[in-house]
Design a protein that fits this description.
The structure is a homodimer of 464-residue chains. Chain A is α/β, with parallel strands linked by helices. Chain A is built from 16 helices and 19 strands. In chain A, the strands form four sheets. In chain A, strands 13-12-1-5-3-17-18 form a seven-stranded antiparallel beta sheet. In chain A, strands 7-6-11-10-9-8 form a six-stranded parallel beta sheet. In chain A, helix 11 runs parallel beside helix 12.
């Protein structure tokens, strides 16, 4: 068969065990309602909070979930799946409910940001791709916001497509960075898809392809008459800045304005000071300086602490792969099945049972003072962060614009204790487990212990 | 317009500056042949070599490159692009040549693994996505091979989809891991697309959804009668192993064979020893033990050094994001335009000019003894690693099967000095720059110095 017909992010983009488990559920008619929650177990090093992102893509995935003809054909030839089960998959749609924190919400470990309530096979099947979508944008938004906090008032542009992990990573990293407060991206498709402002400068190859650097600058400026950003470091950064100064009057007479210059190698602080000086002496005070070159939030903070005259930054690879913490310890766990709470008790990976709500309390000054993870319906102080977003497999309302998620995050940041907004690790924000949740977990564990001791008696032996 | 019609990995998945530079090239008729090369500048920490991967996807991208109607429409409304240029883009196809190292080739810093020769705008436009494709699979194959070296003879399965960075990353990480010597993947689409063997066990949720763990095991085994792998650690690992022992006779009478068990938390070595003992005492010597839980090559090496009775490993997140080194310092640089060598001289990022070949010498025992990076056509000892793969925008031959790339890598590994096959950093493998290449770089630099001194005279000042 033609496997090119298989959609790259369709229903087969899942783990094999989801399908074998589904067949077992199908065989035994286990279609009762299940509740799964997605949460992060702990913060990576040097993160004081996380930013919820990726909900829009997760809901797209759930609404569009179906096995296409080519996928069903592949499954029926694979060998592990019986025809009646493949017929069931052909009819399968996501018919459940979703509750979630809106994108742009600040959250903490053990706080679910998404809950799926659906017949067990549906809720199970979607696990792999749901985690894949929520994990990545949350990871990147939580990384990108650190650059936003490190460089207030500076222009920040995502430059990371080329070394992002594949096509979707490049596209969605641009989205997550914009949600986190970046000004825009260089990734054209992200501009076209999500309305994110596009920025770009020029590459070294453009300069190299010309025999003369000044001629390269002039041609590029003519092609982008209002906003050309000229790249200075192909050969000699300061010499190139001098060329820009000599070129500017002629361009001005042609009605062309050089928007800025970019420095992409060497000691960025030193180059920026010298280039600023050359530009200023040459009457180009309004030409901005843009810096790039394997930057991250720590370097932004250092450059700005030193007073470097840099107006904007291209932040690429290290943000788009979240280089210092390239994954989150997250999970999508069954918390309830057929009306009964469920709990995984694996060592170091135990989960809190039941369906939950997260509450945030504010102090008199309006600053976030602590969260509580509680059972749904359990009375708590503060504002509830999780809301219904999907019912019967359809969104309850159109997604808020990306701008709204962006604004939500900025509002939440402004109410976050300032220590948490630092790049360094702060004292953890208090997240309390409610009395009701603790009680449910204890009840569950007591029942499990009883079950195990019965097992031991059954074996006629006792184990440590 | 409906931006959902924009293909997720189409021609707009590029950096904005590629399009503005293309417009400048178009304006000035700069269509002469350009040569770009893709290479890695330096090895990440604890890598002794890299594995070339991603060529098949890169060639797919080049053969399929075209702006679709929806993309052209978006471009013409953007504002930065003139109608005559958009018309040019509508006709644009990749018509060039590609030379490359076959997938599965071991390579080192400064060795190009792919060369594009094409009219300048074509060779320029493809930069962002070509890097995006080559970088990721090379990154993952170079990470995955370390698990293969650490765990010879053990079954290795990619488990990383859920925390890979998006859909394409999950799919292509499975491919790169298989190329590197993994036995298979859990990612169904990778099995369907690339013919990679699929493996899977069961999830904690399956056990949790049953009121009784033993009943969950029995049901799962019935649904996968020849190869069920039962997950032991949802509640108590050893207690679950005892349940498997008690269950096995009944399953055997029903013609069902338990293939293996999986341990996914706690002290894997200790659990594996106790579980092996329980299984052996219960007559289940042929039931294999499979381990997972945030594993990487270092943990595999440690577990096996300790003699843990583990037959196979699920390696996920840390491999699929290459957690200890989540990106490579790679570049795609212009080396020649209109018949003249070009060189970027940026501080710390200078490139070697001209079109190159990489040669590998072998000693009398057939072991790799050193590489040379030379100008194409410059006589060298050894075997040439770069070969023509595309001409006139079309592949010269069908891609070799993924199995062939996998075999090529194993052959190359067997000829690599053993220190390089260690997980620890070894003395660097010798890579020599040829006399011809050094001469060309000197000539280029001398001409550039001359040009700069003329500039300085022109400014009537002297700079340090």
């Amino acid at each position: 068969m033609n496997t090119d017909a298989l959609p790259p992010s369709g229903a087969l983009l899942t783990d094999f065990y989801q399908l074998t488990m589904l067949q077992a559920y199908f065989d035994r008619g286990m279609f009762a309602p299940a509740v799964f929650e997605f949460y992060v177990r702990e913060l990576p090093p040097r993160r004081n909070f996380l930013v919820a992102a990726g909900l829009a893509q997760a809901l797209d995935f759930l609404e569009g979930l179906r096995f296409e003809a080519a996928e069903l054909e592949w499954l029926s030839h694979h060998g592990a799946f019986r025809p009646d089960f493949v017929d069931y998959l052909a009819r399968l749609r996501f018919s459940g409910e979703v509750h979630a924190m809106p994108e742009g919400t600040v959250f903490f470990p053990n706080e679910p940001i998404l809950r799926v309530s659906a017949p067990l096979p549906e809720a199970q099947l979607v696990e792999s791709r749901l985690i894949n979508l929520l994990h990545f944008q949350t990871l990147i938004a939580s990384k990108a916001v650190r650059s936003v906090l490190a460089a207030p008032g500076r222009r920040l542009v995502d430059f990371g497509l080329r070394r992002a992990h594949g096509a979707e990573a490049g596209l969605l990293a641009a989205r997550a960075a914009y949600l986190a407060g970046f000004d825009g991206t260089a990734t054209v498709l992200a501009g076209a898809r999500f309305g994110i402002p596009l920025y770009g400068t020029m590459a070294h190859s453009f300069v190299q392809a010309h025999d003369d650097e000044a001629a390269a600058f002039e041609r590029f400026a003519h092609s982008l008459p209002q906003n050309a950003v000229l790249l200075l470091d192909t050969y000699d950064t300061e010499a190139a800045a001098e060329k820009v100064v000599r070129l500017a009057p002629r361009l001005r007479r042609a009605g062309i304005r050089v928007g800025g210059v970019r420095i992409d190698s060497g000691d960025l602080a030193a180059h920026a000071r010298r280039v600023r000086d050359i530009l200023d002496r040459g009457g180009l005070r309004d030409v901005t300086i843009f810096a790039s070159s394997n930057l991250d939030e720590d370097q932004l903070a250092r450059l700005l602490r030193d007073g470097s005259p840099i107006d904007g930054f291209g932040v690429g690879t290290r943000m788009d792969v979240s280089a210092d913490a390239p994954y989150l310890d997250c999970a999508y766990k069954l918390q309830e099945y057929a009306g009964r709470a469920r709990r995984k008790r694996s060592e170091g990976k135990a989960s809190w049972p039941g369906r939950k709500q997260v509450w945030r309390r504010y102090d008199a000054a309006g600053m976030a003072a602590g969260d509580a993870v509680a059972l749904e319906g359990e009375a708590q102080d503060g504002s509830a962060l999780i809301e219904p977003v999907m019912r019967g497999g359809r969104r309850l309302r159109p997604d808020p614009p990306l701008q709204a998620a962006r604004a939500r995050l900025q509002e939440q940041l402004s109410r976050l204790p300032s220590a948490l907004r630092s790049l360094d690790e702060a004292r953890p924000y208090p997240v309390e487990i409610s009395a009701g949740l603790k009680r449910l977990a204890q009840e569950f564990d007591a029942a499990a212990e009883l079950d195990q001791s019965q097992n031991r008696n059954h074996r006629g032996e006792s184990q440590a």
